[in-house]
Amino acid sequence: MNKTDTVTDTAAKETDAQGRPILLDIRSLRTTFHTDDGPVRAVDGVSLKIHRQETLGVVGESGCGKSITAMSVMRLFPSPPGRIEGGEILFHASGAESGPVDLAKVDPKGRVIRRIRGNEIAMIFQEPMTSLSPVHTVGNQISETIRLHQKVDKKEARERSIEMLRKVRLPKPERQFDAYPFELSGGMRQRAMIAMALSCNPSLLIADEPTTALDVTVQAEILYLIKELQEEIGMAVMLITHDLGVIAHMADTVAVMYMGKVVERASTRNVLKDPRHPYTVGLLRSIPRLGAKRALVPIKGTVPDPFKLPPGCSFGPRCPRQVYPGWDTDPPLLEEVAPGHFTRCCGTVCEEADEQPETAAP
Amino acid sequence: MIHFILRRLLNMIPTMFIISVVSFVIIQAPPGDMLSYRLAHLEEQGALGSVSAVEQLEALREQYGLNDPLHVQYFRWIGGIVLRGDFGDSFTYEMGVMELIGERIGMTFALTLATMIFTWAVAIPIGIYSATHKYSIGDNAFTLIGFIGLASPNFLLALILMYAQVTVFEASSVGGLLSPEFIGEPWSVAKFFNFLSHVWVPVVVIGTAGTAAVIRIMRGNLLDVLDQQHIQTARSKGLSESVVVNKYGVRIAINPLVSRIGLELPNLLSGAVVAGIVLGLPTAGPIFYNALISQDMYLAGAFLILSGMFLLFGNLIADILLAWLDPRIRYD
Amino acid sequence: MTENPTLVQRLTDLGRRALGMRRRLPSAPPPPAERKKYKGYSQWRLVWRRFLRNRAGVAGGVVILFIAFCVFFAEFLSPHHVNTRYNEYTHMPPQRVHIFSADGIHLPFVYAIRGYVDPETGLRKYVEDRSTRHTIRFFTRGDTYSFYGIFESDIRFIGAGQGNPFFLLGTDRFGRDLLSRILVGGRVSFTVGLLAVFLSLTLGTMMGMISGYYGGVIDNFVQRTIEVIYSFPSIPILMALSALLPPHWPGYLTFMGIVTVLALVGWGGLAREIRGKTLAIRDSDFVLAARVAGAKDGRIIFRHVLPAMSSHVIVITTLAIPSFILSESTLSFLGLGIKPPMTSWGLLLSDAMNIYVLALYPWLLFPGLCILITVLAFNFLGDGIRDATAPFGH
Question: What 8-state DSSP symbol labels residue B280?
Fold first, then answer.
């Protein structure tokens, strides 16, 4: 039913516009969950690229496959029922002469991925309340990571952990080292979580909705913290969110996902100002904005049942365009509609017919 | 921590008081008192022709204070227990209750605790195995055994094991904790092995249901915990699966089990009583049973109240253990 | 056991894990078709359909229905009167059913049995008398019985002719047919379990709901009471209380006494569960809405709280029955429960308490098998209902 995308820009470009070398290259990744109600293609032919020190924002509604994509990189989704059924996840580890590692092929419990997790690629999660072990101290959980990946003794690990806690601006880091997570507030826990994730100076941080569960005031602080540490450590960030405002602040490039597929991929500026896919257009229109005179426009219809995907374009039934004669039979391919701007819409040709959305937030 | 323990100890006092009242009510409930039993006994022997016997009994009744109001009798009884450790007299054996069953009660509690430790030592690793090898042949086998274990009453297990001992192992002596030739002998290697060859029967009888329950709970808890977010965090740090399971999974899954000690102990003690009766062990079970049959109520009451205390302290220890294991409770 | 519960469990579980996954991760695929598929059915219909998919639970239910049928028609189904003593056939082992004889093939039959005393051991032995065949007949005449006092009949389901030896599970020391005694005794064991659970459920639901709904002093009092009950080991306290039942009481009073004792000791667990559930429901939005609308406590309890936990009550009831059956059997086994001439599985097993008797006449353990099967069936049924009623995935 779905052809894998031809990745048009694979061969040549190993660096981006600023000359940054490629770090993570996901090609036509397919991750399927085999449930007793049938298979669910959670990730359905996704291709993404992240360059060193770059921030890639991945946006989409709940259930679009953005978290599973991230979990696939870390090989952390439960298996069974989940399985990677195709594609490559090429990770260019720092200083690896032998070339990139294909994370799609490694043993999810094996040594290779374990050496990468926490060390090369770190991850922070949405729920700071539950993502730390409740019965171990914060310091124990951080220094454990350091001792695992760096050959240091207990004392050294403790000092580095406290240093990390200081970096994430946790007050009284020496005391918090011995605190249990339940003694910290949500924002403080997320700081501790970031300290843990960055304790080994990873080259890629995957942040899965890192601020969704936090108070609005804390959200900005955490995002700012991530950005600051990103520059200090020089890591790339894969930021998963449903909040386009966050994307506008943080991301260099954006991938918009819908039903397990990337439907639009371009620089943040292009996506926000010149969206080509009707779904992206819909997302942007459904954001409330101060001073906007026009009423919010929700995307009509609902997300289809993952067990009964519509034939052809999975956004088709909700699409305001539906102009291209074959939209309900032929799935569209990801096409480059402008330099570095890819979209997966069979109605791309008619995009002039659409009204352009208002300018996105800065 | 000390504050926590003190508070729990204070909390136990009213419960202990009610336990003692209930025990006393049970002691007093059968019609008549211990002397009327003796009277009936004498009547049977035809020794009761003379008036003096009745008068003698009446004097004894006065002497034991059996004509006093109930609350006076209660406080005399509980006072004896608290102040002197005197649980009253058994009239069938005509001696002090503690003298009679003190050692046997200690034996019962020791057997209960030993069985618990033994079964947990067996059940927790099996539970971990079952959770980490979900639906493997081993897991399925343990699940089935567990269901059967939970469904068999202690006495049935005791009967089946005795039957197996006689037919399969062709044991010369069945029941008890030692073969007759070793009873009263000083401890030796041979005696110890003889003890081992006997003691596994009560341990299995008492422990099977609890083992099944603990396996089931451990498996379920661990599966729940392994589904939690912080396990993913631990994996995302690059820890090996065994560290993830043991340090982060088992450590948390075991907490609710510790609080189950309080629930498990009464069942084990029940099992120990039944096993004692069926297997004829030198524990309090058979004596308690005989006391009930012959309505020797001070004896029965002493066992009840001591069991209550034992379980209360078991609960206390479980709580302390839990507070020590789980910082969230400790800091409450 | 022919059932393989785990295959079904495995499948549902796989699904659940995937669904759990989706629930936790907001960006995973949305909940699957299940809800849509069942749209338009009532809640109970949905529960029923989910229950039917759990084969272990269904098997448990079928076994329970079968046992209930057997014990209800116990007299009709049993080949002999429960207390008829066949003095010449004491401690007879289970009889074999044949279809072949030296003469060829027949309808199922049993041979006549000749008993003699083994001169070496002094024990009674039995041999088949191959010269006499008794054909097994259905709806045949046997001992007269009264069907719950409604009518009397001597038509029994199965027999080999009146007065002929026909002991499929052997006999006890008085030569009474064990199969007949298991059937009739089963009725006692089964109904003790049901009545005790009914009684303790009534008590437990009342106390639990009051305790959970009002909280405060009442809650404290009820919880303390339960704590005291649980401070005694269950079997010893049951033994002590049963020992207080007057020995001269007639059978039915002892029966009710045992039921009461079981319920008095057993209601605490049910009350605790109900209390927890009540607490959760009390604080839920729909109860708040009812209260805002001006509903009185009684109405809220009976119209909102009770119905909301009906499925939970069914589950804990089903899972509580086995413990009552086990307790009754232990008490009766120890001679502190049901008294002769009534009988129950536990009481039947007390014949096997002596190891020498047991070693010689192992068929006396058959009632134990019945206890085991009944308890297993209730556990499977309860687990099945729990899985079917539990909200999605948990």
Answer: T
Residues C140 and C252 in one domain: no
* pLDDT interval class at A87 (50, 70, 90): confident
pLDDT score at C2: 34
pLDDT band at C139 (very low <50, low <70, confident <90, very high): confident
Domain boundary among C127, C142, C166: C166
C225 beta partners: none
The residue among C166, C190, C205 that closes a domain is: C166
CATH number at residue C204: 1.10.3720.10
pLDDT digits (tens, 9 = 90+) for A221-240: 888 889 988 988 889 999 99
Chain A contact probe: residue of B224, B226, B228, B230 with most A CBs at under 10 A: B230
Does C355 share its domain with C286? yes
| Per-residue model confidence as pLDDT tens digits over C297-321 | 888 888 878 777 887 888 888 888 9
Q: What is the pLDDT of residue C195?
A: 94
Instruction: List strand residue ranges (DSSP E) for C77-187, in order.
Output: 98-101, 104-117, 124-135, 137-147, 151-159
Residue B287 neighbours by CB distance under 10 Å: 25
What are the tokens at B1?
Answer: 């921590």
Task: Give the angle subtended at the CA of C88 by the CAs of C83 and C93, to the nearest 5°.
Answer: 80
Q: What is the separation, in whole angstroms, between the first and last Cα of chain A? A: 39
Confidence category of residue A5, pLDDT binned at 50, 70, 90: very low
Q: To which residue do tokens 């991301």 refer?
A: A251
- The token duo for C297 is 């406590």
Minimum CA–CA partner of A67 in chain C: C27
Q: How far is CA C52 from the centre of its chain?
A: 21
Within 8 A by CB and 6+ apart from A272, the residues are A244, A247, A248, A254, A284, A359, A360, A361
Pick the residue from chain C with its C-alpha nearest to A130. Answer: C24
Q: What is the span of the domain harbouring residue C328? A: 180-389
Query: Is residue C292 a part of any domain in this protein?
Result: yes
Two structure tokens written together for B55: 């008068």
C109 and C186 together in one domain = no
Beta carbons of A324 and A346 less than 8 angstroms apart: yes
* CA distance, residue B52 to nearest chain C CA (Å): 31
Asked if the structure places residue C58 within a domain, the reply is no
DSSP-based three-state secondary structure for A27: strand
Domain count, chain C: 2
Q: Tell me: pLDDT of C101 over 90.
A: no
Yes or no, beta carbons of C29 and A33 under 8 Å apart = yes
Does position B32 have pLDDT exceeding 90, yes or no? no
The residues facing A59 across adjacent strands are A241, A256
Per-residue confidence (pLDDT) for residue B324, from 0 to 100: 82
In a domain, C27, yes or no: no
Closest CA relative to residue C345, chosen from C114, C214, C179: C179
Q: Which residues of A touch C (CB under 8 A)?
A: 33-37, 40, 42, 60-68, 71, 77-78, 80-82, 126, 208-209, 212, 240, 242, 260, 303, 305-308
A123 touches chain B (CB under 8 A): yes
Tell me whether residue C145 is in a domain: yes
Query: Do C153 and C203 sit in the same domain of this protein?
Result: no
Are C139 and C185 found together in one domain? no
Kindly state whether B239 is in contact with chain A, defined as any CB-CB distance less than 8 angstroms.
yes
> C202 and C143, same structural domain?
no
Same-domain status, C126 and C226: no
CA distance linking residue B181 with residue B212, whole number of Å: 35
- In chain C, beta strands by DSSP E: 98-101, 104-117, 124-135, 137-147, 151-159
Amino acid in the structure at residue A287: I
For residue A266, give the H/E element and its range. strand A261-267
Phi, psi angle pair for A237, to nearest 5°: -130, 130
Query: Do C146 and C255 share a domain, yes or no?
Result: no
At C393, is the pLDDT very low, low, confident or very high (cuts 50, 70, 90)? very low
At residue B310, does pLDDT exceed 50?
Answer: yes
Tell me which residue has tokens 């599966």.
B223
